[in-house]
Amino acid sequence: MKQASAGILLAAATTLAHAAAPATTVKVEGGRIEGRIEDGVRAFRGIPFAAPPVGALRWQAPQPVRPWQGVRQAVEFGNRCMQLPLYSDMVFRSPGQSEDCLYLNVWAPANAGLGKKKGLPVLVYIYGGGLATGDGSEPRYEGAAMAKQGIVALTVNYRLGAFGFLAHPELTAESTHKASGNYGLMDQAAALAWVKKNIAAFGGDPQQVTIAGESAGSYSVSAQMIMPMSQGLFARAIGESGSVLGRRGAPPLADAEKQGAAFAQAAGFATLKELRAAPAEALLQAQARPGAPSFGIVTDGHVIDRPPLDSYAQGRQAKVPLLAGWNSQEMHAGAILDNQEPTPERFQAALQRFYGADPAVLAEAVRVYDYDVADAARDLASDRWIVYGTWKWIDLHAKAAPTWRYYYSRPRPATVDGRPAATGATHSAEIEYAMGNLDGNKVYAWTDEDRAVSRTMQGYFANFIKHGDPNGAGLPAWPLLTQPGASVMRIDVESGAYEPQDRARFEFHDRQAARQ
Prior knowledge:
Layout: H1 2-20, E1 25-28, E2 31-34, E3 36-38, E4 41-48, E5 71-73, E6 103-109, E7 120-126, H2 144-147, E8 152-156, H3 161-165, H4 169-174, H5 183-198, E9 204-214, H6 216-224, E10 236-240, H7 253-267, H8 272-277, H9 280-287, H10 308-313, E11 322-327, H11 344-355, H12 359-368, H13 373-397, E12 403-408, H14 431-435, H15 448-467, E13 488-491, E14 496-498, H16 503-515
Helix pairs in contact: 11-12
């Protein structure tokens, strides 16, 4: 009996030890994967969430992942999706690019979910890059710092450019939904569905998923919020600089089909059969030709079932808490001033060029941008590009669900090779701060002030991901946008809420958008 009791105790102790040990091998849809522990974080890279969209699956909705035998190693990033080298600030750790690119990455605390009845909150980050470039392997999106905040963090890949957003009459004809385009959005939705089914294996709570993204990633978040196929797949949303309600918008399917057919013809492909048989590199190079179109989100009647503005104006979007905003210098003044110094004369000439056809419109533009010319030119350039659309999204959603708006104004510091600090918070400058990834960017000489700003912004993001509210101990109070008075959070070395004075500016752009 004593020997038997000792055996039982040993078995029980072994079971407890295994239960307490961080699991680096987990079972997911498709089979078992093995990651590794890195600095107290379990990292799983290159996990397939759908079948490779190659051959007959090019320009098809993502298909179920193909099962594998044995234990698949998940320690290296998967391929990035096909793309041209467009932006010099993008750093990829993926082994290469391929159409076989539908992979995601997971970072979880080493003890995530162990011995707990309820899983941890989840962050799914969607990269930016104009829907034409980007990858989940970029260091600025690394999820380890968020995992150390008690969050299961993911980055997901999605098809880009013509591979992800080509609409074409033959594609529409073969579709059971009579729609085409938006394959990249469907990839994102498939990744969210994968998270719903599999994230508990990593210690995450499928009911506490936050989707987030910057630039094209923010466009994507605003699109996911109105996509019927994505309803119920997330509980919160974060948008950084951009929405589908901007000037680019989501053109109707007929317009996108004409664009796609013209692209195919110019590239020398007469039929869909020829397009599908073409080498991926040939399609990629066709996008590099002068005059080639850019491909984006389409109102196809299926993935985006109606114009996005209608969905938000009618309250059809997912009514989840939203944290969103933009940066102080999304676009530089020179973008509308022929890259010359801002002067009153040059700014007036720009206003005349944009709004001079209608004297009343021009007069209103002069009135709403009647302040320091350098600031006004910067704001007009930013508003016309990406800020107005972000504001419109925030403004409409605040009528339906809790919404917090930020204004990020911390410029990046000087570079390690001596280039001076920026004069404003440029487009994408906030990502490393928000994700706690300053050390992953080796270009800049980060200071103690930068690290303090990062702690503040990451703190707001982490609180929101965990609780659906950015407020928490040690942070300046951030009121809901619908509260009167100081309701917008300025994030900088000295952060604090202020009362926005920009509504007249954006309502001016509202009226211009309605005339288009």
